[in-house]
Amino acid sequence: MEPDIHISEMLRNYGLAGAALLALPFALWRGKIASDQTKSVQEQTQINADNHLAETYTKAIDQIGDDKQAIQLGGLYALEKIAQKNPDYHRQVMEVLC
CA–CA distance from 41 to each of 33, 45, 94 (Å)? Predict the structure, then answer.
């Protein structure tokens, strides 16, 4: 009876190794899909952030041209925030203010 136990354990181990080898390509493929999805979400998030920044910039410029002083001041504060948080916009903001 002793040899039967070793053979069954050996068969089980080979079966597990075989299953692992069959599952490996699927796991790699799924990892690639997840990575691609993450990249896509990050790109979309950046596009949304860029669009929001452009809308905020445009709205702030419009506010500066308003007749009401409080709205003009809000536009100035918005431009200040944009210039501080986005160095790429700093020069544009300074040109608008000048």
Answer: 12, 6, 33
Q: Do the beta carbons of residue 93 and residue 82 sit within 8 Å?
A: yes
The answer to whether residues 61 and 75 touch, using CB atoms and an 8 Å cutoff, is yes
pLDDT tens digit string along 1-54?
A: 455 668 888 888 999 999 989 999 999 999 999 999 999 999 999 999 999 999
Query: What's at 67, amino acid-wise?
Result: D
Q: How would DSSP label each residue in 42-94?
A: HHHHHHHHHHHHHHHHHHHHHHHTSSSHHHHHHHHHHHHHHHHH-HHHHHHHH
pLDDT tens figures, 56-96? 999 999 999 999 999 999 999 999 999 998 888 888 888 88
Q: Where are the domains of the chain?
A: 2-97
Q: Which two tokens stand for residue 32?
A: 């690639």
